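Working notes for the structural subgroup meeting. M.R. asked for a predicted model of this chain before we commit to crystallization trials. I am recording the input and output together here so anyone reviewing the notebook later can reproduce the run.

Input as submitted:
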Amino acid sequence: MPVKLPWLKGVFPALVTPFVLKTEEVDEAAYRRLIRHVLPHVDGLVTSGTTGEFPYLTREEQKRLVAIGVEEAQGKPVIAGCGAPSTQEALALARDAQEAGASAVLVVTPYFLHPSDKGIYQHFYDIATAIEVPLILYNIPQVMDAYLPRTVIEDLADIPNIVGLKDSSGNLTYTLEVLEYAGDRLDVFIGCDEVVLPALAGGVSGVILASAQVYPEVWQEVISLVGLGRLDEARALQRRVQKLSRIFCRHGGGVAVKAALKMMGLDMGVPRKPLKAVGGGLIHETRAEIRLELERLGKVPADEADFTYPDGPLDSRFADLEITPETIAAHHLRVGSGLAGEGLNKVQIDLIAGGKESPLGDAYALQLTYPLHGREALTAILEPALTVRPATLILPTLPQKNLRQANMIYGPTQLAVARAVVDGLEAGRIPEAAVEDEVLIVLATVHPRALDRHALYLAVYEAASQALAQAFPEEG
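Returned structure, recorded in C-alpha cell form:
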C-alpha cells in the first residue's frame, strides 16, 4: 500500500528556464537568482516542467537544472519534470534526475502518438519500477491533447512508488473524481492557477503553479486560510490574483511569467524558439495588464505619471479645438461637464455642442481631417456602421501611449458616450432639432491606468449623462 510523503504538501513553483538572449543557452546565473528569490516562500521546487519549456531542453540541460535546483534548495525537495513521448526517453530523464538528487520526478502522459489505456499504465509502471525516487503523474490535456484516464490513475495508485498527481486540466469534475477514487493513496496537486481555491476546498494537497514564482506568498496564505475554514478571506485573495493567473494560464505559462518576472527585476531572458516573447507572444495590451496587476499586488512600483483631471472654467477647456470662451458666447454653443467613477475608473467628460455652421462644426471637420497624433478623434457609435445623432465626436484629452489605453477609449468609452447621447435624445433631453442641426464633441479624460472595462463604461455613461444634462438644461 503506498504511503503518502510528509513533504509532498504546499506550494511548489513550476520554474521557468532562463535563456541567454542571443545564444538561447541556459542562463544558470539567472536560474540561481530566481530560485533564491522564490525559495523563502515555497515548500519545494519543480524544474523542467511545462512552464520550464521542457520539450525544448536537451537531456543534459534538464539534468543540470535539477542539479542546480538541489544545490540552491537548502534541503527543500526538488521535483524534476521528466516529460517525454516515449517510455525509453522518459525513463532516461528520470534516472538522470535521480542521479542529480531530485526528490521526485514528474512524468507527463505520453503524447503525440497516443497509446491505449493499457499502454499508458505500462508507461508509468515501467518508469516507476525502474527508479528509486517517487513518481508523480502529470495530467495536462491542454497541450497533450488527451487526459490521463481516471481509471488508469486508480490502478497506478496501487504502485508503491507512484505518490501523487499534478492535475493542470482546470476541470474540477475530473479533479474531484480522482480524489474520490485515489485520494486516499495519492497526493493530488492542482496545476491550474485559476481554480486553486475550489480545488483546495475539494481536498487537494497543494499547488504546482507557474504563478507560484511570481506571488507564492498569496498561495501560501490561501492554503492557510482554507485550512482554517476562513473561506471568505481565501476567496478574496484568489480574486485578487485571478486576472494574472488567467493570463498565465491562457498564455501557456512561460512567456507571460517571464514577462512578469522581468518587470519585477528578474530577467529570465527569452523563450526558446519557436516561442516568441514579442511580435506574437504577448500583445502590448496584455503586457500592460500584467504590469498594472503587478503594481496592484505591490510587486513593482506604480508608474505614477503626472495626471490631473482638467479644471478651471468649463468654457476654457476647449482650446485644442480652437474654441475660446468668446467663441462659445458669440455662437451660443452649449457646454457641459460630468465626473463619475472611482479610483482608476474615475472619468471626466467635458462636452460642447452647437450648430454645424458654427466654428464648432469647423472644429468637428478639422478633427476628422487632421487628427491630433495620439489623440485621434472617433465618432460615437452604438455598433459598427451605426453612428449616433446628433453626430458626436470623442476626443481623448490624453495621448494614448499603448493599445490598452487606446482600447479603453475606443471601446467602453466610445460605446458609453454613444449610449448616453441616444438615451438623452430618447428622453427628450436633447431636442429633436439638434439631430440634424448640431454636432457634439466630447473631451474624454480617462485615467491612463484604467483597466476595468465594465466599470469604465458605467463611469463614462454617468459622466456623459451629467454633461448632457448641463449642456441641454430642461426648459421652464
